[in-house]
């Protein structure tokens, strides 16, 4: 089969390349989705936008990197440690900063998490220099071939781990009593409080879970992606797009939006041009925002 | 005494809206808090449940001050608050809304028994158990809000304008439900703007005017009270 490239209609592309792009887009999309769901969860819960989300992703990648360098722990095995570390960061962020600005004007809230982002990034540059680092010889490396399609094994494992984390998160939020209380707090914090639900603790839990999601994504990324202080910026940007597409506070919406972004990015990369892939993603974003400002899905 | 407010004063920022209100509710009593729009009725209830801080004065439950206790501790003290405008969790099912009502430890341990009791009181909710709360009609949502309050096994049920926007036959149904709740020994403190309706249900009433108590007393004596007429009809 032959697929015509848009800018160069005389060049013919095999369907393998398309399938290849779909598979890699899907796997990358699962990572985007997990980053996005953390952002969405925090926003849905307390209407605070975490502008430091990308920096927490960067932190988790560095944690994963250093655990590999210093202790020899593979990113795949250090997921629980990195997730726990980021959950603690989540508690600290809530109790140290966010709970004090919940009733503050919007601008103050933006400045608080934005300031936190800059502080974390500067600290990372100071501690670890702006160098690009990679993890050599991770446990899972190389690629496998299935019917002419090549799949990077780290990407495959990353996608599966992220999907598992997603399912776990969804089961937790929709099936457990604490998850229900989290949803109740998101939907009406005063009504939840008068029923005895400790809303402040729910907020802290939301931060911890949101950042733990980021940690899982970051750990998996560190196995095949450069680790450097600015690495979170682009991922955070895509996460914002995913949250806007998926609907604020919607878990399944984040999943669908993350995957869509991964697919659009990688298909756009091969069908149009790799240099346009961000443009295509943001084009999709504008289209959806104009047509359905509340996102493609409702809350939760 | 189950609930006592002593010279309660409340302000939003610099703007004081409640001035020296004293009020009490005894075990098993039905008491109504009356007053025109903006007179501070909701503010008083919100202060009792801790959503709004007290500026001066005291709130006692069974003789002990609860000032400074966070809102989420107050359900465990036996106070349930059905907020103004129902405030059900819109994207959760009826069943989930009810389960969440029994959050504090004591209520949770008896949750299954309570839910059976509540379901027999509100058969409509049993039929709609798996429906999302925001798909219910206004009257049904008010039933759900009330039922959710009962799930906390309160000693005092505070309800803010339970009859607002209800059709006349639903009002009658709701009155019967209140009567049934009273029979179980739960004290009720409710807000209502329809004086006649409120006084037909309550043992006693308090009338607020611009954040101050204008008059208080037995329902029988308030029905024909001059001050009540003045407050509500401007006579
Ligand atoms: N969150 C708030 N911030 C500032 N002022 C408020 C707030 N809530 C209420 N107020 C003011 O406090 C006063 C009393 O309001 P409250 O809601 O207690 O009255 P109400 O008697 O319940 O009125 P209604 O019958 O309309 O429900 C009003 O003047 C109102 O504008
Ligand atoms: Mg009111």
SSE inventory with pairings:
The complex is a heterodimer of chains A (300) and B (235).
Chain A: E1 2-4, E2 12-14, H1 15-46, H2 53-71, H3 79-101, H4 106-128, E3 143-146, E4 149-152, H5 153-175, H6 177-187, H7 189-194, H8 199-222, H9 231-246, H10 251-271, H11 277-291
Antiparallel strand pairs in A: 1-2, 3-4
Helix pairs in contact in A: 1-5, 1-8, 1-9, 1-10, 2-3, 2-4, 2-8, 2-9, 3-8, 5-6, 5-8, 6-8, 9-10, 9-11, 10-11
Chain B: E1 3-12, E2 15-25, E3 30-34, H1 41-48, E4 56-61, E5 64-65, H2 71-74, E6 79-82, H3 94-101, H4 105-109, H5 111-121, H6 123-127, H7 138-151, E7 156-160, H8 168-183, E8 187-191, H9 195-201, E9 204-209, E10 212-218, H10 219-223, H11 226-233
Parallel strand pairs in B: 3-8, 3-9, 6-7, 7-8
Antiparallel strand pairs in B: 1-2, 1-4, 4-5, 9-10
Task: Report on the architecture of this protein.
- The complex is a heterodimer of chains A (300) and B (235).
- By secondary structure, chain A is mostly helical.
- Chain A has a domain at 30-136 and 150-229.
- Helix content of chain A is 71%, strand content 5%.
- Chain A contains 11 helices and 4 strands; from the N terminus they run ββααααββααααααα.
- Chain A has a two-stranded antiparallel sheet with strand order 1-2. A two-stranded antiparallel sheet of chain A has the order 3-4.
- In chain A, strand 3 and strand 4 form a beta hairpin.
- In chain B, the strands form 2 sheets. Chain B has a 6-stranded mixed beta sheet with strand order 6-7-8-3-9-10, with helices on both faces. A 4-stranded antiparallel beta sheet of chain B has the order 2-1-4-5, with helices on one face.
- With 235 residues, chain B is α/β, with parallel strands linked by helices.
- Chain B is built from 11 helices and 10 strands.
- In chain B, strand 7, helix 8 (168-183) and strand 8 form a beta-alpha-beta unit.
- Chain B starts with a strand and ends with a helix.
- The mean pLDDT of chain B is 96.
- The structure holds adenosine-5'-triphosphate (ATP) and magnesium ion.
- The site of adenosine-5'-triphosphate has 12 residues of chain B, from strand 2 and helix 1.
């Amino acid at each position: 089969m032959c697929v015509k490239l848009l800018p160069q209609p005389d060049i013919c592309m095999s369907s393998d390349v398309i399938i290849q792009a779909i598979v890699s887009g899907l796997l990358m999309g699962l990572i985007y989705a997990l980053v996005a769901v953390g952002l969405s969860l925090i926003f849905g819960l307390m209407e605070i936008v975490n502008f430091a989300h990308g920096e927490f992703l960067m932190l988790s990648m560095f944690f994963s990197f250093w655990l590999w360098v210093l202790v020899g722990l593979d990113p795949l095995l250090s997921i629980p440690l990195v997730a726990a570390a980021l959950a603690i960061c989540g508690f600290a962020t809530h109790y140290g900063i966010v709970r004090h600005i919940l009733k503050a004007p919007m601008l103050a809230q933006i400045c608080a998490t934005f300031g936190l982002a800059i502080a974390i990034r500067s600290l990372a540059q100071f501690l670890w220099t702006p160098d690009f680092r990679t993890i050599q010889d991770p446990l899972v490396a190389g690629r496998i071939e299935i019917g002419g399609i090549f799949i990077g094994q780290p990407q495959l494992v990353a996608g599966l781990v992220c999907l598992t984390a997603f399912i776990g998160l969804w089961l937790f939020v929709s099936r457990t009593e604490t998850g229900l209380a989290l949803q109740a707090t998101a939907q009406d914090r005063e009504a939840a409080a008068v029923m005895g639900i400790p809303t402040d603790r729910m907020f802290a839990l939301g931060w911890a879970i949101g950042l733990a999601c980021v940690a899982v994504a970051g750990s998996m990324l560190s196995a095949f992606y450069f680790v450097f202080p600015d690495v979170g910026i682009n991922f955070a940007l895509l996460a914002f797009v995913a949250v806007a597409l998926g609907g604020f506070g919607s878990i399944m919406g984040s999943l669908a939006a993350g995957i869509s972004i991964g697919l659009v990015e990688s298909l756009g990369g091969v069908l149009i041009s790799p240099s346009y892939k961000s443009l295509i993603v943001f084009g999709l974003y504008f289209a959806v925002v104009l047509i359905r400002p509340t996102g493609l899905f409702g809350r939760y | 005494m189950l609930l006592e407010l002593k010279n309660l004063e409340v302000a939003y920022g610099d703007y004081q809206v409640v001035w020296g209100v004293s009020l009490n509710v005894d075990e098993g009593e039905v008491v109504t808090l009356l007053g025109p729009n903006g007179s501070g009725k909701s503010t008083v209830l919100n202060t009792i449940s801790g959503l709004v801080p007290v500026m001066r004065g005291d709130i006692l439950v069974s003789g002990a001050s609860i000032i400074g206790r966070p809102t989420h501790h107050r359900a465990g003290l036996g106070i349930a608050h059905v907020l103004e405008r129902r405030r059900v969790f819109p994207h959760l099912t009826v069943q989930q809304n009810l389960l969440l009502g029994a959050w504090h430890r004591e209520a949770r341990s008896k949750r299954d028994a309570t839910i059976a009791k509540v379901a027999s009181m509100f058969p409509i909710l049993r039929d709609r158990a798996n429906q999302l709360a925001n798909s219910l009609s206004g009257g049904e949502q008010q039933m759900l809000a009330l039922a959710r309050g009962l799930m906390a096994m309160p000693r005092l049920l505070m309800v803010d304008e339970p009859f607002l926007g209800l059709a006349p036959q639903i009002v009658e149904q709701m009155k019967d439900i209140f009567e049934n709740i009273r029979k179980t020994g739960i004290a009720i403190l409710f807000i209502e703007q329809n004086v006649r309706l409120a006084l037909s249900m309550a043992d006693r009433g308090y009338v607020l005017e611009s954040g101050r108590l204008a008059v208080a007393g037995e329902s029988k004596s308030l029905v024909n009270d001059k001050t009540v007429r003045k407050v509500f009809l401007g006579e």
